[in-house]
Structure prediction request, 148 residues.
Amino acid sequence: MAYGTWSRQVVHNPTSDEPDASDGTVRVALVIDNPGTAPALALVWQRVDAQAKDEWSFIGGSYLWQITIFGGGNTTYSHADATKFTGTLDEIIAQYGARMIDDWAPAINARLAQFFEGEEGTPVGIELLFATLRGWQFQAGQLVKKTV
Prediction:
């Protein structure tokens, strides 16, 4: 299964009124973790039937970026284009603004594709059923697996 083993890595209360994306088995969300002291952009998931709705696991094993603001000092921010910027949180936001999240869209979509399709492009969820169905055909009044 493409989802991997779930483990609690983030305790997060959704900050958006929009529903999380879901395939019926798992839901995913884009979150800012640790907003007070070390904000991090993370792509996270949990099972739809999870009892603790605030417990999430990272997709890709970790956050995309994190800014440590303990004591208000400088930190190094890594952007989606692999550039790095060192400064205070206010300086980083002045430099990148909304691009701190927007520019990560291609990388986030690539992680989602890998997460839902599997390491080798194996379909999961409802797509597995459709892919399997396409592998069968009627032949001489009988259902048989395609050999092509």
In short: Helices lie at 89-96, 99-102, 105-117, 126-133. The chain has a mean pLDDT of 83. The radius of gyration is 20 Å.
